[in-house]
Amino acid sequence: MPPKPFPFPVSIGIDICHIPRIREIITKDENKRLDRFTRRIFNTSERPDAQKLIDRYHRTRRREEQSVEAHRNTTLLRLAEWLAGRFAAKEAAMKAISSRRLTWHDICVHSTGKAPYLTILDPPRRNPNCSAHEGGEKSASWPSTVKAVHEKGLTMSTSAAGMEEGVPNSRIARVSISHDGEYATAVVMAFDDATTSHENQRQ
To answer: Given 19, 95, 135, 174, which residue has the most CB atoms within 10 angstroms?
Structure first.
């Protein structure tokens, strides 16, 4: 007798990130690598949170470098840990949702003062009037849609008319981010269409 299928259509992804690797990105090449990194990894709704920590790092960098060694700079460490945690969370989401080739900008990590959570943006229908967003894919009003999802913190349900305009749906996913020593880890639990299809085939 074959084993019973898992009762819930969810998948799990996990990732680990070496924090010193992110710290090097922050401190090398006069922050040029940091700018490229944030633009590549974060969409327009996430960058303000990242920029706040980056600005704080720049404000305190000289003062802290005079008092402690650079590798012990507390503001630098906090920024590196935050970026590494977000990076690991997005990598984990890509592993959890194997039915799609998610881009970095398809995944939003939300901070509400409590536990963080993820929003996964579904791909919109293609529209000839769509403009390209920063990830290179086409979607109408993508930055404004991402911002709305981020601010509301809710799963959006769009109408057929909204889909014709290229506005994506979104799904909430659960994430846990942890830091220990030189490593940041993240675990993501999310609904995955591929999981449902696979279990249906086994039945």
So the answer is: 19
Taking the CB of residue 178, how many other CB atoms lie within 10 A of it? Answer: 12
List residues bridging with 174 in a β-sheet. Answer: 117, 189
Angle subtended by helix axes 47-67 and 32-41, to nearest 10: 150
Q: d(Cα 201, Cα 20) in Å, to the nearest integer? A: 44
- Map residue 62 onto helix, strand or coil: helix
**3-class secondary structure, 179:** strand
Structure-token pair, residue 168:
């994506």
Tell me how far apart the alpha carbons of residues 119 and 125 are, in angstroms, rounded to a whole number: 19
List per-block mean pLDDT (blocks of 10 residues) for the chain, which spans 203 residues: 83 96 88 91 92 89 59 80 97 91 92 84 52 38 46 39 48 94 96 61 49
Assign 89 to helix, strand or coil: helix
Single-letter amino acid code for the residue at 13: G
AA identity, residue 63: R
| CA 177 to chain centroid | 12
DSSP 121-173: EPPPPP-TT--B-TTS-B-TTHHHHHHHHHHH-S-----HHHHHTT---EEEE
Contact 187, 176 (CB under 8 A): yes
For residue 185, the cross-strand partners are 16, 178
Bridge partners, 109 (sequence order): 118
